[in-house]
Amino acid sequence: MSTSHGPAAPDPLDFLAVDSSLSAEERAVRDTVREFGRRELLPHVAEWFAAGTIPDPHGLARKFGQLGLLGMHLDGYGCPGAGAVAYGLACRELEAVDSGLRSFVSVQGSLAMTAIHRYGSEEQKQQWLPRMAAGEAIGCFGLTEPDSGSDPGAMRTRARRVGADWVLTGTKMWITNGSVADVAVVWAGTEEGIRGFLVPAGTPGFTATVIERKLSLRASITAALSLDEVRLPDSARLPLAAGLRAPLSCLTEARYGIVWGAAGAARACYEAALEYATSREQFGQPIAAFQLTQRKLAEMVVDVNQASLTALHLGRLKEAGACHHYQVSFGKLANVAAAQRVAAKARSVHGANGITLDYPVLRHLLNLETVATYEGTEEIHTLSLGQAVTGISAFR
Hints:
Residues 242-389 form the Acyl-CoA dehydrogenase/oxidase C-terminal domain. By secondary structure, the protein is an alpha+beta fold. The chain has three domains: 18-133, Orthogonal Bundle (Butyryl-Coa Dehydrogenase, subunit A, domain 1), CATH 1.10.540.10; 139-236, Butyryl-CoA Dehydrogenase, subunit A, domain 2; 245-390, Butyryl-CoA Dehydrogenase, subunit A, domain 3 (Up-down Bundle). Helix content is 50%, strand content 16%. The strands form four sheets. Strands 4-5-9-8 form a four-stranded antiparallel sheet, with helices on one face. β6 (183-190) and β7 (193-200) form a beta hairpin. α4 packs antiparallel against α6, α6 (245-279) runs antiparallel to α7 (291-319) and α8 crosses α10 (378-390). The protein starts with 23 loop residues before the first helix and ends in a 6-residue tail after the last helix.
């Protein structure tokens, strides 16, 4: 007769044991970022959200740099060269605290630093990447404009040659870290097509204005960039960036981080709801005992674990060099939608308490409204998947 009692019951906080397949190094990254987030960020993030800013972005950048989180997936120039899954785990743990904090790291590493690393000259890499990796310099990424969000090819910002120099004129919108950045990666149309330029803060004609009155992603700094006859030497141009494919490739890197980040936001909301439901009593028993609450928790745990599996699988594909940008669109679309469902259910489990900053659920729900929009809206990623499965583009 067998004496086996069968497998252990699932862990409610990792129901499908997704993290059991992580390597020791990946677990170390997970634990380090999670502990840092809970110690250094979580006690303050509700206050930052209420204030609508990050009080000391340069200090925060240096802390992220000390942890090796800035450009952590890049090689050389002071960057750790971590694997895709390790980077994803860092994004997951940061967004479990707040989407704005993951966005800070994502814009720095996956957008600004990746653009310089992939398309910059050796001089540009040496000048900026080590400082950015250490958090001694902050970068931003100027692609979106007031009249061209989902259609970046319709951008109106222009760069024209004047002698040996370039002169840039235009406006960029919704730029994370724009007003605190030491350098902006700005994309502009030229006679030869779209090109990228490095615009240092303080360049004459270049201004950044903080966008106020946001109701989402408030623990983050968002700005509009204005370029009024900004004159730059040709050495400011990213020499290997030609066409729209260059900035879009950077967006794919950022979207990959969002796939993991959304899983983190979903997990945080589910964990908060589970704790609340098992401790909050009504009608003489915990609300977790009621069928309707259990259904919400069951649906949440399914979404959380499916999102985690999607993120991990895409990470393994990425590490194998086999992850197509259509698959990243799949992950972004699926995981953000899952996180929104989880956050909404978690808010309802919390009842009236769920609308306060004493609990994280509505903060995450509001943030996810932005996450669903930036780096490609739900509609854009839906059409990307439609094009992938039919071979027919519905964009034009």
